[in-house]
Design goal:
By secondary structure, the chain is of the alpha/beta class. The chain contains 15 helices and twelve strands. The longest helix is centred in the C-terminal third of the chain and has 25 residues. Bound molecules: glutamic acid (GLU).
Length: 431
């Protein structure tokens, strides 16, 4: 996260605008601008050389009006409490925009897993989950993967929590390996959801997916799979960058081979037949669809003024700053905001939790088709809000849709005093 840009303040600014546009009272903003609960933990971990290192971890529960809080755990050197607050806040509205019966939460540990051994990461995962165990639970707060955490980490955390409880509690965490209660399709879900929303957006603005050019920033789980799925829909992937370097080929890159190359070499840089491209060049290059799939605050005002893409699909959380948003709106770029575009991950996490609760598991086709229904419905609802309200961009429209549901839940629960109703009641878990 950049020093000058505080994601938490940005997140607050985003919801303030939507609360105002909906004509809701300041009480709604006063509740939503801050988390319901936050916990900071010191996590001592024995390193392989026998030293003890104490890591700082967080778990933030933003709002539980619609259900238990839900959201991933990030392992990254730049994790701060404010970043986790922002990410937790975004989760509340992400879950609400796709109609999940969840609130938002998030966790993080300031650490660099790239410099830790698998055994050190395992010890950290177990110690961290023990430290936050008193405030989480399948009916309270359900973690999941995020940046630099994965199914293996989820499995260790589930195992540790199950030991703490004294029985197998698969519903405590989602994004697990399939053998221990994970859902088929979860690994690809963020990317798949993103590809559905991009497809719908392209339809809405009359952009043909066949031959549409795509540039991807970040070639990890989300970025590389979105690239593959868009390629399957007929798009041409012309460039990708990661934290080490980039690869560009105007004739198109094979997204699967590129992912294999990255796995072997740790970067997309140097991919055979490609030219090098910098991060900034990629963000501002001529292409139809731009996918930020890395970290926060990547598309700043400076970048936004040179963006040439027609659609931006935010696979990452918080990649665009508010100043950049304004510039992109003026330029007529259709930004598919993170809380909509990357909601596929938490949607299939919800399916995983439902399957764990039932003890009955679905086929991958069933998961994917249920995901498609949710994503297409959410896109249509947000797009309608965007079209029906002058001066509102897609991000504000997505917040307006989700805040209206969160606020209605708070109102009927009696959290808002005499606040009048704004949202029609909706059955939140409607397919
Ligand atoms: N970390 C993911 C996100 O930011 C997934 C959260 C989840 O599955 O609960 O949406």
């Amino acid at each position: 996260m950049s020093k000058e840009l505080n994601s938490y303040q940005i997140a607050q600014e985003q919801i303030k605008e939507a609360v105002k546009k909906l004509g809701l009272s300041s009480t709604v903003f006063d509740i939503l601008k801050q988390p319901e609960r936050e916990l900071t933990v010191a996590v001592p971990v024995e390193m392989d050389n026998g030293d003890i290192r104490v890591f700082t971890g967080y778990r933030v529960q933003h709002n539980s009006a619609l259900g238990p809080t839900k959201g991933g755990i990030r392992f990254h050197p730049d994790v701060t409490l404010d970043e986790v607050r922002a990410l937790a806040l975004w989760m509340t509205f992400k879950s609400a925009v796709v109609g999940l019966p969840y609130g938002g939460g998030k966790g993080g540990v300031a650490c660099n897993p790239k410099e830790m051994s698998p055994r050190e990461i395992q010890r950290l995962s177990r110690e961290y989950i023990r430290a936050i165990a008193p405030i989480i639970g399948p009916e309270k707060d359900i973690p999941a993967p995020d940046v630099y955490t994965n199914p293996q980490v989820m499995s260790w955390m589930m195992d540790e929590y199950s030991k703490y409880k004294g029985y197998n509690d698969f519903g405590i965490i989602t994004g697990k390996p399939v053998i221990v209660g994970g859902s088929l399709g979860r690994n690809e879900a963020t990317a798949r959801g993103c590809s559905f929303v991009i497809r719908e957006a392209a339809k809405a603005i009359g952009l043909d997916m066949k031959g549409a050019t795509v540039a991807v920033q970040g070639y990890g789980n989300a970025g590389s799979i979105v690239a593959r799925l868009l390629h399957e829909m007929g798009c041409q992937i012309i460039a990708a960058v990661d934290s080490t370097g980039g690869a560009y080929n105007p004739q198109g890159l094979d997204p699967v081979k590129l992912a294999e190359y990255k796995k072997e070499n740790g970067t997309v840089k140097g991919y055979p037949g490609s030219k090098e491209i910098s991060n900034e060049e990629l963000l501002t290059m001529k292409c139809d669809i731009l996918i930020p799939a890395a970290l926060e605050n990547q598309i700043t005002e400076d970048i936004a003024k040179d963006v040439q893409a027609k659609i931006i699909g935010e696979a990452a959380n918080g990649p665009t700053t508010p100043g950049a948003d304004r510039i992109l709106t003026e330029k007529g770029v259709l930004v598919l905001p993170d809380i909509l575009a990357n909601a596929g991950g938490v949607t299939v996490s919800y399916f995983e939790w439902v399957q764990n609760n039932m003890g009955y598991y679905w086929s991958e086709e069933e998961v994917n088709s249920k995901l498609e229904v949710k994503m297409v419905n959410a896109f249509n609802e947000v797009y309608k809000m965007f079209k029906n309200n002058k001066g509102v961009d897609m991000r504000t429209a997505a917040y307006m849709v989700s805040i209206s549901y969160v606020s209605e839940a708070m109102r009927v629960r009696g959290w808002l005093g005499q606040e009048p109703a704004v949202a029609k009641s909706r059955q939140v878990n409607l397919a």
